[in-house]
Specification:
CATH architecture: 3-Layer(aba) Sandwich
Largest sheet: 7 strands, mixed
Bound molecules: S-adenosylmethionine
Helix content: 25-40%
Oligomer: single chain
Strand order of the largest sheet: 3-2-1-4-5-7-6
CATH topology: Rossmann fold
Shape: globular
Strand content: 15-25%
Number of strands: 7
């Protein structure tokens, strides 16, 4: 407790500011943003479980960092020699994140290991570059064809044996299905077929995170077996 003579601690408005920036971008860009709020710290911790443990330095790709809810946790668990590239389609989010990386103390230890690029995952060139991909892409918002393309890009960018960790809102496809028009039903069925097939063949871990709005499941897949 503060003594009566000590200055009262200032309330931190940072999480509120971040949420406000996020919501501002959601309006009018729901298809690519695909969320109403940034991920919780519980979800961020669960998705970063992949990065913990004893290992060699990794090249890590974060896809769709938004305002950095997960990037912050990645930065916290980065090891010496790791590199993190964060690719974000939305320029305002990328700017917000760059600013935070340069100025916030959460990034002080690892800011030289992180770079933020503006662009689409689908446009990254190269093969077998990354030892791990952490994705925040809202796959359930995309057309089936795009989801197929995203998995194919993940595959070509990953080294054999590399984990992909991503999240989706818990049971969202099934919950939405009865309430949407025919065309949207068709889209959801296509997305489910593609995603469920990948999960069936390649998932190594799934963890539910109730402390998130809405609750989510974090999935880890190895899309290409180690050689
Ligand atoms: C659901 S939000 C996740 C934001 C943040 N990772 C979090 O968990 O709070 C999805 C993010 O992916 C970005 N995004 C959508 N499509 C993308 C693409 N093709 N390439 C890169 N980023 C994309 C959006 O702009 C948005 O920031």
């Amino acid at each position: 407790m503060n003594s009566p003579l000590s200055k009262p601690k200032k309330a931190s408005w940072e999480p509120l500011k971040e949420t406000r920036s996020f919501i501002k971008e959601v309006v009018g860009r729901f298809e690519t943003t695909g969320a109403i709020l940034p991920s919780s710290k519980y979800l961020a911790r669960a998705i970063c479980a992949t990065l913990r443990g004893d290992r060699e330095p990794w090249n890590i790709l974060e896809v769709g960092p938004g305002t950095g809810a997960i990037t912050r946790e990645i930065a916290r668990v980065l090891k010496p020699g790791d590199t993190l590239t964060a690719i974000e389609i939305n320029e305002s989010f990328a700017e917000h994140l760059r600013h935070d990386i340069q100025t916030k103390k959460e990034y002080a230890k690892s800011r030289d290991q992180i770079k933020v690029q503006v662009g689409r995952l689908e446009d990254i060139q190269g093969t077998e570059i990354y030892d791990c991909i952490i994705s925040g892409l809202p796959m359930n918002n995309f057309e089936g064809e795009i989801v197929r393309q995203i998995f194919s890009v993940f595959r070509s960018l990953m080294k054999p044996g590399a984990p992909l960790s991503y999240y989706e809102y818990f049971a969202i496809r099934n919950l939405k299905y009865p309430f949407v028009p025919k065309l949207e039903k068709k889209r959801l069925r296509e997305v489910s077929e593609i995603v469920d097939e990948e999960i069936k063949k390649h998932q190594i871990r799934a963890r539910k995170v109730w402390m998130n709005v809405p609750p989510a499941v974090v999935r880890t897949l190895i899309l290409k077996p180690a050689r």
